[in-house]
Every structure is written in structure tokens, then in C-alpha cells.
Design brief:
- By secondary structure, the protein is an alpha/beta fold.
- It has a domain of 122 residues: Rossmann fold.
- It has a 4-stranded parallel β-sheet with strand order 2-1-3-4, with helices on both faces. A 4-stranded parallel β-sheet has the order 6-5-7-8, with helices on both faces.
- Helix 4 runs antiparallel to helix 8 and helix 6 runs parallel beside helix 7.
Length: 347
């Protein structure tokens, strides 16, 4: 008889606060599922435990069937390729261990409620002297080399904009794609609204969230007649935890299929036709476990603002030349995109 266990697969970060916050969510899920399944977790890169360590811990508890959930908002390269590659490799190396892979958190009413609560929290702190109709909502996504993931951020923005009654809504991204935060906010500031709410649609803190807030301050200084409000990210909101639980149940029910209708690896998405059928492999072996607590002095993370166009959940725009063999992002030279990160804040 098989014994079930749950594996929460994170990306990892060099930022210790981000790692701690992900770990706190994993431990909260462990407490919530106590008595049903053992729960463990691990990271793809830049932090420990790595995914393999979490799977080893489950196997040591007698688990023979793992329900693996990607701890990511949307499915881009990490959820579609890198994590499945790690899981498949582990299965091949450990006969008798079955791993069933679930889908990302995605666009979900629970996640929208969590996002709405974070925005309401910021509005309450800012005061009600400016109406919703005079307020623009700027939702900031992570940014990926996958247009499917990027478009999901825009859909989240529209659902929040319409559901909360803001006067206008815009989307920008922290890296890899376009428009980035600084040009996006400058554009938004010219639309004539009295208040701009900047909401990072991120699970956890990190260099990218800090950069979003820094760019907000930078642009706010240029437009002193507009009130800029910085909303908090999602973190361990109750509805985020419930979404994780729902993804686990979907695996058990067999209903948790990833939506591949617009996946650039399986369909010829406009502008990304050359990426159909690329092999499923992880590109992160060289950074497994490197980062927090490893004795390295790297304060930065990286979002690969160079031509490889990764969709990493971390952030620095290094121009140096290591190659993870990702397919080049076709819009890497967009004037509001990755290349502008090389200028630095205010550059």
C-alpha cells in the first residue's frame, strides 16, 4: 500500500527573508495537513534545502507517492521545465517512488481575494480622501520569457481593476520582459490620476520587490502632485494557503492539469515559434543550494536582464557571460525592457 506525502517546490532566493517566508508557508501547510500527509519542501536554486533534499526526507518517512506542487504564481520555464526535470530525474534514480506533479497557483478566486486584501490594506493606511475613480492600480508582475505567464499578470490586473472599481489599471514587470517598472510608472503618471497604487503580485519579498518599491519612490519624486501608495505582496495570506491546499486536492482528484493551451513549448505562440518542442530539462544544477548561508557574499539575486531572458524568481541584471542554454528572449532589446535594467535605478 502506497503512502502519500506532499512536496512544495520553491524557486529559491539569495534573499534570506524570501527564503524564510517561503519556509514559513511550507511549515504552515505542514501544520494544516498534519495527520493526513507528511509535508516537506525544497528549492530549485540559491537556497537549501534543495528539492532533492525534501524528497529524500519524505522517502525516509516511508512515502512512496509524492504530490508535488510548484510554489509559483504562474507557469513559466521553472514550473513547466525545470522543476519537472528535477522530479523526473529523482523518480528515475529512486525506483518505487512515484511523483505526481500539480499545477501552479495560477489565476484563482482565492488568490484574487488575497490580492484584494493586500490592496485594501494599503488603501486603508493611505486614507479615503481620494476616490477609487481617481486612483490607478499598477500591478507589477515578475516578468518571464514566456508570454503565457506574462499575460496572466495582465488578467489578474484586469480582474482586480474591475472588481475593485479603480479608475484605471496598468501592468508592468520587474524584469525580463516589458514594460519594466520605471517606464511603466512614468507612463501611468501621465494619465492624470491623483493616486497610483503599486501592487507587487509576488508571493514573497526579495531583491525584486525592493527594487519595485525603490522605483516607485524614484518616479514619485518626479510627480509630487500624485500620491503613490505601495501595497504589500501576498506572503502567507490565508487564501494563499487555501490555494496550495486546493492544488494538492486537485492532484488526488486528477483534475489539476496545467493549462497548456498557450504554452510556447507546445504551441506556436506568435513571436516564439522556434521554441516549440524544446526538451524538458533543468538549467539550474550549478546553483542548487548556493546562496543563503553558503558563505558566499552575493547580496544580489538575478533576473537575467541579458539575452537569455530567464523567468527567474530572483533579481539582478548581470551582463556577464554564463549560459544556461535557454532560448533567447526575442524582445530582449525592447526600449522599455530588459536592457534598461543595466542602467540601474534612475539611469
Amino acid at each position: 500500500m502506497s503512502k502519500l506525502g506532499v512536496m512544495i517546490c520553491g524557486h529559491g532566493s539569495r534573499n534570506q527573508n524570501a527564503v524564510d517566508q517561503f519556509g514559513a508557508v511550507a511549515h504552515a501547510l505542514r501544520d494544516r495537513l498534519a495527520g493526513k500527509y507528511p509535508v516537506d519542501y525544497g528549492y530549485l536554486e540559491f537556497a537549501t534545502p534543495i528539492i532533492r533534499n525534501g524528497l529524500d526526507a519524505l522517502r525516509a518517512q516511508g512515502v512512496t507517492e509524492v504530490l508535488a506542487v510548484p510554489g509559483m504564481l504562474f507557469a513559466a520555464g521553472h514550473a513547466k521545465n525545470d522543476i519537472p526535470s528535477v522530479l523526473n530525474t529523482y523518480m528515475a534514480q529512486n525506483p518505487g517512488m512515484t511523483i505526481r506533479y500539480g499545477r501552479e497557483l495560477g489565476i484563482d478566486t482565492r488568490m484574487l481575494h488575497a490580492a484584494g486584501d493586500r490592496i485594501e490594506q494599503a488603501l486603508k493606511a493611505a486614507g479615503d480622501d481620494i476616490s477609487r475613480h481617481d486612483t490607478l492600480l499598477m500591478v507589477v508582475g515578475r516578468g518571464a520569457s514566456d508570454p503565457d505567464a506574462n499575460s496572466n499578470v495582465t488578467k489578474v490586473m484586469r480582474l482586480l481593476w474591475e472588481g475593485m472599481g479603480f479608475g484605471w489599471g496598468e501592468t508592468c514587470y520587474s524584469g525580463v520582459t516589458f514594460p519594466l517598472v520605471e517606464p511603466g510608472l512614468r507612463h501611468a503618471a501621465r494619465l492624470g490620476f491623483k493616486r497610483i497604487v503599486v501592487f507587487p503580485y509576488f508571493l514573497f519579498t526579495g531583491v525584486l520587490v525592493e527594487r519595485i518599491y525603490d522605483y516607485t519612490d524614484l518616479v514619485a519624486a518626479e510627480f509630487p502632485n500624485i500620491e503613490f501608495v505601495k501595497a504589500p505582496y501576498l506572503n502567507d495570506h490565508e487564501m494563499v494557503l487555501r490555494t496550495f491546499e486546493a492544488r494538492i486536492e486537485e492532484i488526488l482528484e486528477g483534475t489539476g492539469n496545467m493549462n497548456c493551451q498557450m504554452c510556447k513549448y507546445r504551441e506556436q505562440v506568435l513571436g516564439f515559434e522556434a521554441e516549440v518542442g524544446l526538451s524538458q530539462e533543468s538549467h539550474h544544477h550549478h546553483v542548487e543550494g548556493i546562496g543563503t548561508g553558503d558563505g558566499h557574499s552575493h547580496e544580489h539575486e538575478h533576473d537575467h536582464g541579458h539575452d537569455h531572458g530567464h523567468d527567474h524568481e530572483h533579481g539582478h541584471d548581470h551582463e556577464h557571460g554564463h549560459d544556461h542554454h535557454h532560448h533567447p528572449y526575442p524582445q530582449a532589446d525592447h526600449p522599455m525592457g530588459p536592457k534598461t535594467l543595466r542602467k540601474g535605478l534612475g539611469g
